[in-house]
Amino acid sequence: MKRRSLWSWIVLVLAILYFGLPLLGTVDFSMKMRRGVYSLDAYWAVLGDPRFQATFLYSVVMACMTIVVGVLLVVPTAYWVRLKLPRWRPVIEFITMLPLVIPAIVIVFGYIRLYNTSSWLPLTGSALGTDALLTLGYTTLALPYMYRAVDTGLRTIDVATLTEAAESLGAGWITVMWRVILPNVLVAVLSGAFLTFAIVIGEFTMAALLNRPAFGPYLQLVGANRAYEPAALAVIAFAITWICMGLIQLVTRLQKHTMRV
Amino acid sequence: MAFLELSGVRKDFELVRVVRDFNLDVERGEFISFLGPSGCGKTTTLRMVAGFETPTAGEIRIAGRDVVGLKPNQRNIGMVFQSYALFPNMTVAQNVAFGLKVAGKPRAEIDARVAQMLGIIKLPQLADRYPFQLSGGQQQRVALARALAVQPQVLLLDEPLSALDAKIRVSLREEIRAIQKALGITTIYVTHDQEEALSMSDRIVVMHEGRVDQIGTPFEIYNTPATSFVASFVGTLNRIEGIIADPSAGTVRVGARDVAVASPLGARRAGEQVSLALRPEAVTLAPRPGQDVAIEARIVEVAFLGSVIRVRADIGGATITLDTFNSPASPPPRIGDAVTLHLSSSDWVVLAD
Ligand SMILES: Nc1ncnc2c1ncn2[C@@H]1O[C@H](COP(=O)(O)OP(=O)(O)O)[C@@H](O)[C@H]1O
Ligand SMILES: [Mg+2]
């Protein structure tokens, strides 16, 4: 017992050093823009940059669109598979895992080949079309996380019997989805949504290759040309991710208090 | 014309015939139980009435209307599940209101109806609780209220008490029956528990391997089982194999003696094998008026069960189980005692196989 706790302390300290030191160094460096004193100058410079505001806003909008598309795609699919096609679950799960194996650059090249201006559906011909394509690309990237989260949520309720109970009370399938299934997997959906948000905000490959003004390419641009601002940006991006993770924890805990034993 | 009719209903799952030639007429307001061992097709039949399964063949009519083509949400049927199936995200009141909301009823009507239903199940104080804050018995009562709130034409219950402990089972089954009677709602109740079926039902449908073995009142099912399966499944029963001695005199040879059997032996001939059934409570150690059969026997087993003493006696070629009431005045018989068993020839039931 004692030995084990000693070892776990050592591992913990090593982990903190490995993950924490670079972060600490970055925070430290980001506050040294003004010579000799700690200041938030780099942060003000970044936040005041109109390109930061524009690209960040763009990525937030894209993240929200991705979440909406992802939820609309994944919740009914996962529900339907659990209810009607339980034998197909491993297959569907495998398909949703594919984006983890196929690099984003391959996916986006595939998109460009399929939907370029001389193709049957020239999505890349307009900004709106490209945004739609990018949303779909992001949805693909987030699919493994979204599907897992929702499927785990569905496992905690008796989908088949709840559906039948609602149907016998006169509900059609939209009512079943909206009033019975979705509220009961809301926490899982929110977890998936925050993960999606974190992924989309920092994504570089797809946005860069589709040439959209997203936050990821902006990070890269600033990183290549400035000294202190990239450190500040890294800290900001890190904070956003952490906030997302914290929100996942928060909603999970809230759920425990109000709904489940 | 009956209110709910099943005629020639059959269900195949791929190559397996799970329900075969099911015929049943249920009168308005009747309480019917489907009784049978696990896997005999009770749930499948119930789900065909509810619309969750489509019959392979046959017709199901409610109030004269063929419902086979209708979806579950068009049938106006109340369903109660073994697992309660309350919506976890809704309070008790919201659960009960669900069907009324779906039907688009006005707010005031919904509130009044929910209050009325919570009164009927005697849980008005729990309106704002969530399902996970209720006991199993309370959850099932809420599920009942939810199913009844929409005033369904037929109420279907699939082993609603199986997940509850014994004491609550008994009190809740009385409550369900009382509510059913008060509302006069046509009900089908699925159970594998013969005590439940016998104590609650107007009529019982005993099912066996997808077939209806017998339909009758609890009294008929218990006292005149139609098949050897019904006889063995419902209640404790003596089953004795005999050989027809004289069909016209109604005697059957059991071991070395002939016993008189009042029930008709049908077209059987002398020398044919026959199965007889006899309820333990029909046999007594002291003669009672009206008993015309006396059999010499030897006690082989005595079990003291409290108010009842269960005795097993060997009659040579067969053992008979009988129940006698405990009486402080007379001590129970002992193993090895020679006794005379008294019964009436009309107590024998000849079983069709
Ligand atoms: N969806 C299904 N697919 C295949 N077989 C089924 C299905 N549902 C039930 N069965 C089979 O039908 C038989 C009867 O089942 P069921 O109606 O649930 O019995 P009971 O309710 O009397 O226990 C069982 O052998 C069961 O395995
Ligand atoms: Mg069943």
UniProtKB/TrEMBL annotation, chain A:
UniProt-recorded name of the protein: ABC transporter permease
Annotated transmembrane regions: 7-25, 56-79, 91-114, 126-147, 185-210, 230-251
Signal peptide range: none
Organism: Alsobacter ponti
Subcellular location: Cell inner membrane; Cell membrane
Superkingdom in the source lineage: Bacteria
Topology in the lipid bilayer: Multi-pass membrane protein
Pfam family, one: BPD_transp_1
Family named by the database record: Belongs to the binding-protein-dependent transport system permease family.
Family matches, as CDD domains: TM_PBP2
Domain ABC transmembrane type-1: 56-249
Keywords from the UniProt entry: Cell inner membrane, Cell membrane, Membrane, Transmembrane, Transmembrane helix, Transport
From TrEMBL, chain B:
Source organism superkingdom: Bacteria
Listed Gene3D superfamilies: 2.40.50.100, P-loop containing nucleotide triphosphate hydrolases
Signal peptide: none
MF (Gene Ontology): ATP binding
InterPro entries with a match to the protein in the record: AAA+_ATPase, ABC_SmlMolc_Importer, ABC_transporter-like_ATP-bd, ABC_transporter-like_CS, Mo/tungstate-bd_C_term_dom, P-loop_NTPase, Transp-assoc_OB_typ2
Sorted UniProt keywords: ATP-binding, Nucleotide-binding, Transport
Boundaries of every ABC transporter domain copy: 4-234
PROSITE patterns according to UniProt: ABC_TRANSPORTER_1, ABC_TRANSPORTER_2
SMART domains xref list: AAA (SM00382)
Family note: Belongs to the ABC transporter superfamily.
The protein, known as: ABC transporter ATP-binding protein
